[in-house]
Write a structure and sequence with these properties.
Blueprint: E1 8-10, E2 24-30, H1 37-45, E3 52-58, H2 65-75, E4 79-84, H3 90-100, E5 105-108, E6 114-115, H4 119-125, E7 133-137, E8 140-142, H5 148-160, H6 163-166, E9 172-173, H7 175-184, E10 197-200, H8 202-207, H9 218-230, E11 232-238, E12 240-244, H10 249-256, H11 258-275, H12 280-288, H13 295-312, H14 316-329, H15 338-347, H16 350-361
Helix pairs in contact: 7-9, 7-12, 10-11, 11-13, 11-14, 13-14
């Protein structure tokens, strides 16, 4: 999957006594994470369940992260450290972790997050042989440098979009049930960050890796992709802590460009739901609605709305540039289903000529 230029250096090998594969690979993708890494690693090593490897993949950090990781490896034989030759970015580093993990299950742990001591025990106990995803309830910890707006937005998201709210007291959620949730809120992450998940490693072979086209919703799209097919198991108690601070990637993504992180990511999610074979269960659920829903039509409407949002924003040219890049990478965003064109022709309103001209210009 990666070229020679992204070769990694393996600095610690498994001890010979670990010839058997561990049940779980705890994967810490890290980049310039010296502030919280030691505490994060310790929370993993303190687990009551001990059959795991701890894989730290450093994405070419320029601070002391890599040295800290090597020090952790020298102190505990369960720790394995890899370093990317060059910076791959957040999503590709998550994929790098999945490629090099050896456990049956993968437990992602962000460099600034924490696991409860019983996390692996409880989350593995909830797993089922026919389900590839286990999710624990989200718990946020706001550092003093987290802005009031960030706290408000994230607290609101957790309150509004959570598995506890959608499926109260339910431990197993079928693929069909979850497809209905994706259909109703396609761009709202009701599962949470990777720190709250346990993913069967074979799921990456079946359903692909994290999609690097996303800025903010890569974890949600991947987990939804898995869950609509195999369902998921839910542990309605906090087994991990997601730390929110000014240096967090999620905060950085939003501050760098709300339109790109929210609007464009939302379009790409809808694109995958409308066209990807892995989201067929969602399209099936849409056809069973009364009346049936046409997700390709809805995607065309969403693209048109995204264009209007760009034109009304503070920097229309930059926003339209983001939209055009998304269309270049996902050409079917330009597709208008025949029924959409027919509806367009019947309306005879002034916005048609304007939109038609814009679509042709793309």
């Amino acid at each position: 999957m990666y070229s020679d230029s992204t070769r990694y250096e393996l600095y610690t090998e498994f001890h010979s006594s670990r010839a058997m594969k561990p049940a779980i690979s705890i994967c810490i993708p890290t980049h310039n994470g010296e502030r919280f890494l030691r505490e994060c690693v310790q929370s993993a090593l303190d687990q009551t369940f001990t059959e795991f490897e701890l894989l730290i993949v450093d994405d070419a950090s320029v601070d002391s992260t890599f040295n800290l990781a090597k020090q952790c490896a020298s102190e505990d034989s369960r720790v394995r450290v890899c370093r990317n030759e060059r910076n791959l970015g957040l999503v590709q580093n998550w994929n790098r972790c999945a490629e090099h993990a050896v456990g049956e299950w993968i437990k992602f742990l962000h460099q600034d997050d924490l696991l409860a001591k019983n996390c692996l025990t409880d989350i593995l106990e909830a797993a089922r042989p026919d389900v590839d995803l286990v999710v624990a309830r989200r718990e946020l910890r706001f550092e003093t440098d987290a802005t009031d707006d960030t706290q408000r937005i994230m607290q609101n998201d957790v309150a509004q979009y959570s598995l506890t709210r959608y499926f109260p007291s339910q431990k197993h959620i079928s693929g069909e049930q979850f497809a209905r949730v994706v259909l109703s809120v396609p761009d709202k992450n009701c599962i949470g960050e990777p720190t709250f998940t346990l993913i069967r490693r074979s799921a990456f072979r079946r359903f692909g890796f994290f999609n690097p086209s996303f800025v903010n919703l890569c974890d949600w799209e991947f987990c939804a992709r898995v869950a609509v097919n195999t369902g998921l198991c839910y542990v309605d108690k906090p087994l991990a802590v997601f730390r929110v601070h000014s240096g967090a990637v999620s905060a950085h993504n939003r501050s760098q460009g709300y339109y790109r992180a929210v609007t464009i990511d939302g379009l790409i999610v809808r694109h995958e739901i409308a066209y990807s074979r892995h989201f067929y269960p969602v399209r099936l659920a849409a056809r069973k609605d009364t009346p049936p829903r046409n997700l390709k039509m809805e995607l065309a409407d969403a693209v048109r709305q995204a264009r209007r949002e760009a034109l009304c924003g503070s920097d229309p040219q930059a926003a339209l540039g983001e939209l055009r890049r998304a269309m270049k990478n996902h050409p079917r965003l330009l597709c208008m289903p025949p029924t959409y064109l027919l509806r367009w022709a019947i309306s005879k309103t002034s916005w048609m000529a304007e939109d038609s001209y814009w679509w042709r210009k793309q």
